[in-house]
Amino acid sequence: MSGQLVAAEGLPWPPSVGDFYPPNVAGPWVTKFGIMIWLAVALLIIFFMLAYRKPKLVPGKAQWYAESVYGLVRDNIAREQMGNAGIRFAPYFTVLFSFILLTNIFSIVPGLQISPNSHIAFPIVLSAISYVMYIYIGIRKHGLGKYLKQSLILPGVPWPMHFLLIPIELLQNFIVRPVTLALRLFANMFAGHLLLLVFTVGGFVMLASDSIFVQVTSVFSFAMAIVMAFFELLVAALQAYVFVTLTANYIGSSLADEH
């Protein structure tokens, strides 16, 4: 009813759920999200190829940026979570961090203005890749039987308690970890985009009002949209860091000799 009144007055429709998801570009197989994923992949490949095309002892700007990203991930994530064993995983963690960071930043880029990670499908895929690596590395090092034993059975616990603890450990190690890894990234990017949408579209709706007071109030809505855009940039970097840190922590636990 309210939407009909707004339309009758010649004003824009208020924000709805349909405003959140971008329309398909060319049918269900070519979507804006898909284009952004390929764009992110292309940009990262081009950036790192140009940065390391002619490496120098005294790096230029591009090489310095690339080395800074790799150094951050290697020293503050891989080595911090896994010790020296984490260095061999640093390239994967760097690619994962860079990809998540770039696709998160898309949420405040004009013309894109949404992160693919605000759609649950993409965090699920990223989480599944890390989850498969987490399981595979543990089985490869310890063998299936030993890996399951050290993942599910707590040492030094009276045997009757295992009837309670084994299901809890199974749920925590093999179900909760991948699910929360995906949901954490999705929920933060979804909420951030929703706030930007509310303040931006709400500002345009108020600006089109016949009331001078409402039009003036729209300035505060646009101001909050700008503030939230900077906050979204901080969240984008933080969520990329958290996702990769948890991935490194999980893989490190698979390599550990004890529970």
From TrEMBL:
It is found in: Cell membrane; Membrane. It is a multi-pass membrane protein. Keywords: ATP synthesis, Cell membrane, CF(0), Hydrogen ion transport, Ion transport, Membrane, Transmembrane, Transmembrane helix, Transport. GO terms for molecular function: proton-transporting ATP synthase activity, rotational mechanism. The chain crosses the membrane at residues 33-52, 89-108, 120-139, 181-207, 219-244. Pfam families: ATP-synt_A. Gene3D superfamilies: ATP synthase, F0 complex, subunit A. One of its GO terms (cellular component) is proton-transporting ATP synthase complex. Signal peptide: none annotated. Belongs to the ATPase A chain family. HAMAP family: ATP_synth_a_bact. This is ATP synthase subunit a.
